[in-house]
Task: inverse folding
């Protein structure tokens, strides 16, 4: 204890000499903290600006306005069958299918080609194959469908809005380096020149990409690939999650918190639930593949199996949040209810549960938002299959929004699909932000009232 | 259609049962001096339960057996000589024709003599079996209703019985969580053991080469399934992630907890927590198209060869993902350190940072270690970021600038699109899953134990 030999003045001097260094340390430490926060905020900003910058252009798309003529010369076809009296459903359908097959066999590209040639300046020289690369490859299906729906169009000229092809879209938006040589360009030189002319004279315009929301996925026609199928798949799965996870989760939390005797077993259940919450999501996918698909033989790639897997994943979140909410209810409320002669069940369901409603609601919404963004387990139960239809029921093949993002990011047409993928991410983030905003709003509303 | 009929009928029956039970109990209490044990609602609910349970049981049995019975009946309608001439595909087509006839949709082509009769028979059979089922369900329901209604008397403890039913329902709900764990363990263990019948566990756990062969032709040669390349990849990426997440997350928590003004805290904390809510596929895409190319170009400028998809790319982005996890857990834990400890240090003249470093952090250390372990377990189990950004190169090497592969990536690769689980190629996913599950389970249990102990210490 040498300090004791120092005089008070000496000791004060010692402290004062050290102060500068200590204050420097203090400032350094504070700076570290600020740097850390700036880094974290910077990551958020970077992520969002990056996705927005990439994704927003994909919400507009090049449209092609054409005058197409359903030229009887080009379309040689019988009249559409009319239902005869007494004809059975099956017979009529087979006649109709025969006619539609006949319609499908026609080369509808000739009509589009004629329309494109009419729109091009007189004397513009371009091969028909090159010409057709300007419109998306499914344009012929659109035209055909127009005709199937209304066979009277034969001989008429109508103006239609068609999607320009993905390559056209890339060229116009400048996603492709315009200085590259012919060998590296997807489009031929005349086609590129014609696209520029079309853009000048208003044949090609930029419009909101409705097809992103009204179409299903497509491989052959990238410009028309949309999210409708994935949105419906996600909708079915979320429906299953809400219908199953909320009652089961809340019920389980009520039992564990209010009724279960304090014993080894309930302790074990508690540890078990906490662990389930931290089990990697891909393990739930393995569970789904082995149990739901392989043992119960649920249909592969269907929202039913996906919804069940996500339900099991969401359960711990809801249970833990509900238990925390139940724990937070003041004992006075319980004792008052019990004191008035309510039974335990009545106390819980009539008095305690209504008070916890805002917390349960918030937990549910957050759990659903989490489940909505989950990808890995869905890959293991076949939801990454290519599905080009809208699932009408939860047992039909479908995909989900995050899985669609996964599929699109792997598409070979990187130039086009990088933007589409970012747009799909924006849609997904939009849903999640909306859900979370609703949760925050409801929570503040309901808590104020309570 | 028939589902709606059944559901509607069930609802009507339930409403009726409730009403009957309720009205009878009301009728009991009108005479002077009779005290009914339970309130009318409970009598109603009890009667409704007695109606619901038998009816639902019948419906369940029907839903389970009817497809098989209908199939059997349809087959029995096809004459033996025709049946003998049909292969599996032909049989399915024949049955579809009969079903189309039965539903009144009709078929195209020549109608064979037996088909028309079979269609009519099937239609009649379907209607009849549906009606029988409906009658059985309704009958049993009504039987339950009358029985339960007859039991109603002033001393019947209807409330206790209903509450017992509710508590059984709640127990069933709690069982789901346990069944899930049991399902996970059972499916992983059984399938992993099936894998170990093909591959020696020693070769799996200590093998240094990961080279599964996808061809199912060579029965003897299934490829090599060494875990070590995947394990090192997983650990390398997790370590990089923790190197990013722990300093940033911890310092954020400390600053927000100790220095920041309440208003700043109110703004910054939710923004950082946004990072936790972003789906991992989004991080994966971000890593793949933005971070990876940036790192590669950056490496080029300083003369270092960095692959666009590498352990570094995946680890960095995963670290960003884990920041909010570390920061909010640490924040919680710092909040729990008693104020008196801090005030004591201030009283002795320590600066704020000295208090934090010498008093607060040592006191909070166990909790922070727990948070750290939970974060590691999350990093190990993370899938989508590594699937997209780690490069999928299952080679044993220590360079974080090159592509690697992880356990989760290999699970996805081995199992995607394959569900018949016949060979070691797909079964290995379960062995990997079991390894992953055990690793994260140990981490979680230790972490939760530490955090729990820490909380108790200061309560």
Result:
């Amino acid at each position: 204890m040498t300090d004791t030999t120092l005089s008070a003045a000496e000791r004060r001097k010692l402290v004062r000499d050290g102060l500068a260094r200590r204050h420097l340390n203090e400032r350094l430490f504070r700076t570290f903290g600020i740097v850390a926060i700036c880094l974290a905020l910077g990551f958020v900003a970077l992520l969002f600006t990056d996705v927005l910058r990439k994704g927003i252009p994909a919400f507009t798309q090049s449209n092609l306005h054409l005058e197409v003529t359903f030229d009887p010369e080009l379309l040689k076809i019988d009249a559409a069958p009319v239902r005869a009296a007494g004809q059975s459903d099956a017979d009529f359908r087979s006649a109709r299918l025969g006619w539609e097959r006949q319609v499908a066999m026609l080369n509808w590209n000739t009509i589009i080609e004629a329309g494109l040639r009419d729109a091009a300046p007189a004397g513009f020289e371009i091969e028909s194959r090159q010409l057709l690369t300007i419109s998306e490859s499914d344009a012929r299906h659109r035209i055909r469908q127009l005709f199937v729906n209304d066979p009277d169009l034969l001989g008429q000229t109508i103006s239609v809005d068609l999607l320009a092809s993905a390559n056209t879209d890339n060229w116009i938006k400048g996603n492709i380096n315009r200085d590259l040589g012919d060998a590296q360009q997807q489009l031929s030189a005349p086609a590129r020149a014609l696209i520029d002319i079309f853009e000048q004279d208003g044949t090609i315009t930029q419009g909101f990409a409705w097809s992103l929301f009204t179409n299903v996925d497509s491989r052959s026609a990238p410009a028309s690939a949309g999210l409708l199928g994935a949105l419906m798949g996600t909708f079915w799965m979320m429906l299953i999650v809400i219908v199953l996870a909320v009652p089961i989760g809340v019920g389980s939390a009520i039992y564990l918190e209010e009724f279960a005797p304090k014993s080894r077993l309930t302790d074990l259940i508690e540890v078990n639930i906490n662990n389930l919450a931290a089990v990697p999501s891909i393990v739930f996918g393995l569970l789904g593949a082995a149990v739901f698909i392989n043992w119960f033989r649920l249909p592969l790639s269907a929202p039913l199996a996906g919804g069940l897997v996500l339900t099991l994943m969401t359960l711990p979140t809801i249970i833990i949040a509900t238990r925390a909410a139940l724990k937070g209810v003041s004992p006075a409320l319980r004792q008052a209810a019990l004191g008035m002669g309510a039974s335990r069940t009545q106390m819980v369901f009539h008095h305690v549960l209504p008070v916890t409603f805002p917390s349960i609601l918030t937990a549910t919404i957050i759990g659903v938002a989490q489940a909505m963004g989950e990808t890995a387990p869905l890959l293991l139960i076949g939801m990454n299959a290519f599905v080009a239809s809208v699932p009408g029921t939860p047992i039909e093949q479908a995909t989900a929004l995050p899985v669609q993002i996964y599929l699109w990011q792997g598409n070979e047409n990187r130039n086009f699909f990088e933007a589409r993928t970012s747009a799909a991410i924006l849609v997904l983030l939009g849903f999640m932000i909306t859900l979370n905003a609703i949760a925050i709003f409801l929570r503040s509303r309901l808590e104020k009232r309570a | 259609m028939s589902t709606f009929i059944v559901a509607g009928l069930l609802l009507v029956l339930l409403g009726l049962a409730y009403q009957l039970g309720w009205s009878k109990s009301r009728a009991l209490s009108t005479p002077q001096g009779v005290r009914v044990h339970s309130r009318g609602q409970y009598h109603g609910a009890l009667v409704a339960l007695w109606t619901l349970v038998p009816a639902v049981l019948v419906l369940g049995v029907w839903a389970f057996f009817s497809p098989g019975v209908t199939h059997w009946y349809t087959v029995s309608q096809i004459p033996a000589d025709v049946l003998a001439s049909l292969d599996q595909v032909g049989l399915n087509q024949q049955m579809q024709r009969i079903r189309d006839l039965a539903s009144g949709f009709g078929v195209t082509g020549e109608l064979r003599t037996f088909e028309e009769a079979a269609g009519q028979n099937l239609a009649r059979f379907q209607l009849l079996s549906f009606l029988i089922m409906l009658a059985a369900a309704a009958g049993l329901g009504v039987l339950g209703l009358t029985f339960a209604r007859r039991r109603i008397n002033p001393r019947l403890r209807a409330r206790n019985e209903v509450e017992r039913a509710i508590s059984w329902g709640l127990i069933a709900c709690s069982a789901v969580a346990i069944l899930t764990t049991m399902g996970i363990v059972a499916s992983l263990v059984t399938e992993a053991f099936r894998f170990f019948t093909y591959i020696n566990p020693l070769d799996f756990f200590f093998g240094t080469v990961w080279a599964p062969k996808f061809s199912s032709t060579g029965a003897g040669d299934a490829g090599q399934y060494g875990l070590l390349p995947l394990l090192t990849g997983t650990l390398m990426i997790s370590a990089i992630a923790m190197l990013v997440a722990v300093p940033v997350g911890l310092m954020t928590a400390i600053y927000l907890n100790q220095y920041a003004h309440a208003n700043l805290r109110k703004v910054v904390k939710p923004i950082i927590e946004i990072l936790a809510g972003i789906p991992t596929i989004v991080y994966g895409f971000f890593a793949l198209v933005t971070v990876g190319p940036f790192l590669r170009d950056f490496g080029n400028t300083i003369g270092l060869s960095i692959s666009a998809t590498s352990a570094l790319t995946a680890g960095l982005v995963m670290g960003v993902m884990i920041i909010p996890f570390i920061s909010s857990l640490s924040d919680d834990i710092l909040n729990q350190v008693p104020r008196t400890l801090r005030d004591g240090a201030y009283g002795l003249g320590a600066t704020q940072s000295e208090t934090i470093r010498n008093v607060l952090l040592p006191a909070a250390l166990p909790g922070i270690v727990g948070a750290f372990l939970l974060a590691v377990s999350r990093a190990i189990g993370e899938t989508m970021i590594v699937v997209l950004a780690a490069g999928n190169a299952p080679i044993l090497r220590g360079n974080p600038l090159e592509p690697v592969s992880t356990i989760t990536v290999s699970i996805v690769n081995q199992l995607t699109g394959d569900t018949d689980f016949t060979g070691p190629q797909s079964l290995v996913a379960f062995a990997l899953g079991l390894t992953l599950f055990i690793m994260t389970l140990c981490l979680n249990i230790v972490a939760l134990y530490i955090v729990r102990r820490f909380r108790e210490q200061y309560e």
